[in-house]
TrEMBL record:
CDD domains: F-box_SF
Residues annotated as domain F-box: 44-83
Pathway(s) where this gene product acts: Protein modification; protein ubiquitination
Classification via InterPro entries: F-box-assoc_interact_dom, F-box-like_dom_sf, F-box_dom, FBXO31/39, Gal_Oxase/kelch_b-propeller, Kelch-typ_b-propeller
Organism: Pisum sativum
SMART domains hit by this protein: FBOX
Highest taxon, organism lineage: Eukaryota
Protein name as it appears in the record: F-box domain-containing protein
Annotated keywords: Ubl conjugation pathway
One Pfam short name: F-box
Keyword tRNA-binding found: no
Amino acid sequence: MAGEIAWISHYDDDYLQKKTEDFDLDLSEEVDKEASAVSVDVILPDDLLERILSYLPLASIFRASCVCKRWNTTAERFLWNPSHLLPQKPWYFMFTSSDEPTGHAYDPNLRKWYCIELPFIGTSNWFISSSYGLVCFMDNDSRTELCMCNPITKSCRKLLRPPGMSSDYGALAISVDKESHGYIVAIVKSKQVPENFFQWDISIHLYNSKEEAWAMPLTEVLTGWRGGDESVICNGVLYFVVYYAGGVLPENRHALVAYNISNRFSQASLSFIPIPCSLTCARLMNMKDKLVMVGGIGKHDQPDIIKGIGIWVLHDRKWEEIVRMPHKYFQGFGEFDDVFASSGVDDLIYIQSYGSPALLTFDTNIKQWKWSQKCPVAKRFPLHLFTGFCFEPRLEISP
């Protein structure tokens, strides 16, 4: 299929031990002594070759290792010690089936799509959260099946089942420590109080990979608000979106709740932060340790109808608007629902409509909107839905 490229399927535990006999070239034969031309590869010092390869995207590093013995040896040093590689832009995995977890990953460095099989995940409607190269999956039924994996290396690990009751709504978030590679998994559960439509039990469950144990530091009853499926961890604070559940009508139907998880011995409580304007939906992301929100802006007289998309960053409990999507890009999605998928890492934000495989990116550093390369999968039937998530392509980290 046009535009579709298989991911480097030979990356596995044995890859670094494989030799490229088919490309085993004798460098002494590369130069024709009687010719005036000289092979650049022969005169290129090892340190300069290594520096050149360090600028390549991850997929190109794998391909470069198949050129010759020398390139293979140099590329292996990167694969064993990826810290020498320059930072890679985050990839976006798009689910192309609502029943099965099949899809394609988009590499913005090369503007190409790859076929990738995700380990462990059951269906595309599972809860998903990513941080520093790791992705966590949680089932959407019992919310007790959890797995951490690296989509690039395919390393995978099942986590202990979280304790506690079942819930009506759940939100998943993870945070990976860049130095130790330890991680925290947070689940926010929300369950309606029996025979009370306005009150909801909220419980927070935290998993620490170093201790390999769960803790439940907070349980609380909210009046007029319920939890949802959107949360993120940023600078040791767990943020999650709550929704109007009846009672006194607030100014906006959404609100942000913050809970400090950095000090587990403190008696932290939930803190409410107002949403900047009336939104149809809100998507949270940690971008360089800053909380960023992408929201669908509702019409003033019809808050359920989306009229545009805005991006905000939180500073000292106050929202600062970064940008609003130009109308030509908003129209470019075609029919746009009031809810949509959006996630981001570092400087890159992805926005996707559930109704089509169109994918839009926004670079917060250079303030640039750009459509991705066309996805190799087209919409097959009217109710064919698409969704996805972004993750950092890293080789050095495992669950």
